[in-house]
Amino acid sequence: MNTVTPHGLHHVTAIADDPQANVDFWTRVLGLRLVKQTVNFDAPDTYHLYYGDEAGRPSSLLTFFPWKGVPRGRQGVGMTTATAFSVPEHSLGWWRERLVGHGVDADAPRSRDGEDVLTFRDPDGMVIDLVAAPGDTRSGWDGVASIPSEHAVRGLHAVTLSERLLEPSAQMLTDLLGMELGGEDGDRARFTMAGGPPGALVDLAGGTGMRGLQAGGTVHHVAFRAPDLETMTRWQQELLDAGVGVTDIRDRQYFKSIYFREPGGVLFEIATDEPGFATDEPLLELGRSLRLPPWLEPSRAQIAAALPPLQLDHDEQQAPVEQQA
Ligand code: ZN
User: Fold this and answer.
1) Of these four, 123, 174, 217, 256, which has the most CB atoms within 10 Å of its CB?
2) Distance 302 CA to ligand 1 centre (A)
3) What's the gap in Å between 53 CA and the centre of ligand 1?
4) Segment 177-230, tens digit of pLDDT
5) Is the pTM of this model over 0.85?
């Protein structure tokens, strides 16, 4: 039995095709802030783009490896099949109108397991749920003029993992990761961290179809929060003691990480809250230029030359998104 418990989702990382389309959608349409423009440290010829709230706080973060020309993946069992963000309680109608106005095919909000949910896909086909979550005290990012702060996306809400067998995955979530079973409804079960506020929820859904294929528009991994390196190190030891194949501790510059797979095949990460995104550029400047970790700085010219240029909207606070070219 573990002694360390996570206090929420840290980030979700997915695979995208065109980086420009990715930036445009997630900043201009959904209104997240691009908080870091860097590269995949394990493959520095591709971007790693981080989106979140004003400061890129843990639990607000969605990150992408945009890889131009990547084939479209396939949703299926053994993967994260939906990523949910929380929005204020009465905002789903407003969001549906906004998404449809931007040419996004968004179904009417529906009720699922006692929550109102608006489901749509991003330009790469990634399945996104906006969930009306009363009592989410996070403020989100209010840097896009056409999104009133009363409707702004607050942060991550939950992830849905599709599994052929629920039991082994459920057992890892509770016995090794210290989550609690929050409720069951047919072939869905909800697990909570830290009492289960928005951003601290994992849903397991039973699936019978084909295994998913990880490529464009699919989630690469889900990361959970550890407050600091000491806690994460203890956690790593407990996972090792339980026979889980955990990686060594990786330096991700903005947090430290370990990785392992849950029994159904989904890649999990545990990431520290520290040091965060203002460690190598000021808060006001987050995401505006390419940042590299010290060990890649010597190759900056080569790395930058291989990346497609990104057009960012530095003026997004002045002009509504619909009026921009
Ligand atoms: Zn990660």
Assistant:
1) 217
2) 24
3) 17
4) 999 999 998 899 999 999 999 999 999 999 888 999 999 999 999 999 999 999
5) yes
